[in-house]
Amino acid sequence: MRKAALTAALAAALLLPLAARAAERVENDSIFPPWQHGENNDATQRGLSFTVLEVDDLADFHGDVSDPKLVLYVGGNYFFAMAPLVAAFEQQHPEFNGKIYWETLPPGVLEKQIVAGGTVTSGNMTWTAKPDAYLAGLKKVQSLIDRGLLTGPAVSYVTNSLTIMVPSGNPGHVETLSDLARPGLHVVMPNPEFEGIAHQIEASLKKAGGEALAATVYKAKVADGGTVLTQIHHRQTPLFLMQGRAQAGVTWQSEAAFQEQVGNPITHVDIPSAQNTTAIYAGAEVRNAPHPEAAQLWLSFIRSPAALSIFERYGFKPFAGTTSAG
């Protein structure tokens, strides 16, 4: 009996930590992509459901690629707004129900996919989805028009500004952009190699502390490990914060608003307007788009009152200038 009791006690001692870790994992599953658990999928027939978080999931690819009637390449800055935008568009144009496919990769990565003829590989899967419309920052859109990859004019629709995203409680006691240079404070920052926001952040860092602050955050601290650069997109920023890998990171304020709205342990620190940077979002039809009429319908919709009301939920502001830039 004593041996059986000892065996049971030993088994319990071994299993309790595993059970605790399993419970913790279930609780934390919500922080991993694709975040919205299939809600950002426009497909009406989904067949086998096979998503294993951290192993088999495609957070940036949405919908049915087999026969789409509209393909959108969207810079991932508002991935969280795409599902309601698509739903509102389909309400106005029901012929597109279940027939919209979209990607929310960084603008520079989407540019490479355009050059590759719409073909992309993720893991062991390769597929082709030739784009109809491309949406990103106005400067990026205009540069691709100038290169002949897009057909102008660029259609501008909303603006966004920067914020400092921090974990709830602000454990790093971050109050200003200058705090990001503090030794011992780990920060996560968008990668300048393929994320346009990185250049806008650098501009704000220079406004706050000159070249020295920008160099410290984006060079010296990268070299010593104090700054970790994202590998995919600045959507990794809240993930790194929630995992305890960093105590602060600069993102668009809309992304912090989304994280707060869904209840993740994320908050933000405002950046004064004199140090902030405003981005203008725009889109254009892709040259030789498979569905040019559909592209124009989307570009018209994206600046409509219905679309703008969705953007405003996350703090975007309607673009106040002319509706397009040639």
From TrEMBL:
Keywords associated with the record: Signal
InterPro entries linked to this entry: ModA/WtpA
Signal peptide: 1-22
Pfam family, one: SBP_bac_11
A GO MF label: molybdate ion binding
Keyword Chaperone: no
Single Gene Ontology BP annotation: molybdate ion transport
Domain of life: Bacteria
Name this protein carries in UniProt: ABC transporter substrate-binding protein
Species, as recorded: Bradyrhizobium rifense
